[in-house]
Write a structure and sequence with these properties.
Elements: H1 21-31, E1 37-38, H2 53-61, H3 76-88, E2 99-102, H4 104-116, E3 122-127, H5 131-139, E4 143-148, H6 159-164, E5 170-176, H7 188-201, E6 204-208, E7 232-238, E8 251-257, H8 263-275, H9 281-292, H10 297-301, H11 306-319, E9 324-326, E10 334-339, H12 349-360, E11 362-363, E12 365-366, E13 377-381, H13 386-400
Parallel strand pairs: 1-11, 3-4, 3-5, 5-6, 6-7
Antiparallel strand pairs: 2-8, 7-8, 9-10, 10-13, 12-13
Amino acid sequence: MNSEVETSRSLREVRYEIRGQLAQRAHEMERQGYEIVSLNIGNPGLFGFRTPETMRMAMIENLPTSEAYCHQKGIFPAREAVVMQQQERGVMNVTAEHVFIGNGVSELIDLTLRALLNPHDEVLIPSPDYPLWTAAVTLNDGVAVHYPCTPENSFQPDLDDLEGRITDRTRALVIINPNNPTGAVYTRDVLEGMVALAEKHGLVIFSDEIYDGMIYEDAEFIPIAPLVKNTLCGTFSGLSKVYRACGFRVGWVAFSGTNDLAEEYLDGLDLLASLRLCSNVPGQWGVQTALGGYQSLKELVRPGGRLFESRQAVIDGVAASDYLDLVTPGGSMYAFVGANPDKLPDFDDHEFALELLESQHVLVAPGSSFNVEYCNYFRITFLPESQVIEDVFRRMHEVLSQ
């Protein structure tokens, strides 16, 4: 007897439209011969950015010792390099035993939540968010509770609103700073307030800082870990964005704060890390060189640098448009662009994205993909050269003017 194979019920509430139907349609068009400008994903290697040569050499030179499994937490030189970075930031209670290396931050988001959550436990997540956080909470039987970071507030969290969403089921607070998708860089006052709420209510802090070096003009990145004293803090980062090494699949989470009160949790996370054996070994050899070497990203984010100039092209493109609005991104590699509701009262992000793809061969991510209630925003990456960004906005104008 033949029967249809059904998917797990746990996937019914999971969304990841960044690589969803629009991206699938773009792949179909590419197979038909169309050239697509893909602005839906922050993938530096697709736009000509190279991983620093010293990192590539570190991986190549250590290939002969990379054929066996390593420790489930990662190789010691990589973990110790993360410890040294934390110590440079003033976080002194971190050792290599508190650092876990994963196959990108994505894997570690899943593992850290799986080790923490029981059914119906709640996790506070920013809205808009990087949707993997919401998906991972859902897949691990938790409930994602979104706290709004509105454009009217420059995409910064509202602390009073945030505290009002805390219940006796809340286990963790997720902070994404610099933010994906908005590019917001949180102020010290906001971060200190968020830490105070987490400590007051006994919440674990998960701080996604994968874009910590991508800061523009007068924005200031403030790491969370030095601010946290009275609760557990997990700081996530990796090689994919700042070091332009997405394909290496190397991320890490470093725990600080009340590590002595979280031994059972960290043992559980160690168990989960053991079950998947270890993360990609060759790529881990790039960590020590990356964190301890010359920070070439600084050349890209200062005036005249490629990322700076491409970001400026986005700012200029929005300013020249009668239809678009923008809260200037202070960090990351993204802009969260809004359609002016007075000029485009019936704007629908999915319809716009599809029309832009079909008629202008430009792929963007609809804003509602990032767990917001409104549908008049879309996210683009400014990884392409500035002249490509300028051409993209000309193509957008063709669609919007219709």
